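Reopening this ticket.

The earlier resolution said the output was attached, but the attachment link was broken on my side. Pasting everything inline this time so it's all in one place.
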Amino acid sequence: MDRRSFLKNSAIGGTAAAASTALAAPAYAQGKQTLTMVTSWGRGLAGVFDAAQRVADSVNAMSDGSLTIEIKAAGELVGAFEVFDAVTAGQADMYHAADYYFVNQHPGYAFFTGVPFGATAQETSIWYNHGGGRELHDELGQIFGLKSFIAGNTGAQAGGWYRKEITGPEDFQGLKFRMPGLGGAALGKMGASIQNLPGSEVYQALASGAIDGTEWIGPWADEKAGFQEITQFYYTAGFHEPGVALSVATNRDVFENLSPANQKIIEIASLETHQWNLSQFVSNNGAAVQRLQAGGVKVLEFPDTVWDAFADASRQVFDENMSDDLFKSIYDSYQASIKSVSGWTEISEAPFVSQRARVFG
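Inline output:
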């Protein structure tokens, strides 16, 4: 389905069609251009805002000042979850966010962040760069007038913070829990009341009792957010987001009006940030989890019965979306890439890591 047909037959058609005539061009001054980037992150939010800043700094440096990105944190121009609409409507030039915030626009966006029992960070990069993921991201973006690239990765995300231990699937009944994306939809199947909150609002919601638990990212970012001040039960392995990508999306008309060199600069800055940000998160998580434990946090793993319930609920969520042809195409491509990669890593890398731990400790 092309963009024109989709917009004509969708709820966003009127807004997008009106915006197409009102799109503000990037600011120009003596051959220089400035793009406004809106983000889903509070200013200074550990890791995720860093990724947005990294993209902007890299673009500014590589273009030698001919292209400048001006960042707006969540709430400075639009709200955290309004960035998608702001860019498609031409209110801003580009966004930095987690694309699974926008599954209501299309459920296929979940795969460009993270899905239950999905790809690790390395598997995500392989699928995106060599398994057709980038092309599918672009196909999805064309529907909404966006040009997108992955631009950050948190690595494996933690299972989250809870007010009490989880002993079985029944503990999710009525639990008010913050989790976006298809993982949140799966917890909803298990009876949880799912809250989709921006990162900057999660601490207050947990502290006030508005939610009973939350996932955010991992030990380093979670410690920075201060969740250990509220609850001491921390599940470090989660089913929902094993290798979470972040994305930059530029309004497609704006992107196509840039010079080929500046288009390439945005692409390179985004993909470089993906690897840089992954290293940032992983390098900080080990020390952070040790500090959390030393401070009294109880680090836990979900029992097998809960993992089984997670899997059953996740299958239901995937099945419910398979009637959408593009979702199914993305799902099939994604799963085929994971299976292709795991055929080697399970007999090479996995045994090596086990033996390294055995012989070197």
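Reporter confirms the inline version is readable. The domain at 160-241+284-323 is CATH 3.40.190.10 (D-Maltodextrin-Binding Protein; domain 2). The CA atoms of residues 77 and 343 lie 46 Å apart.
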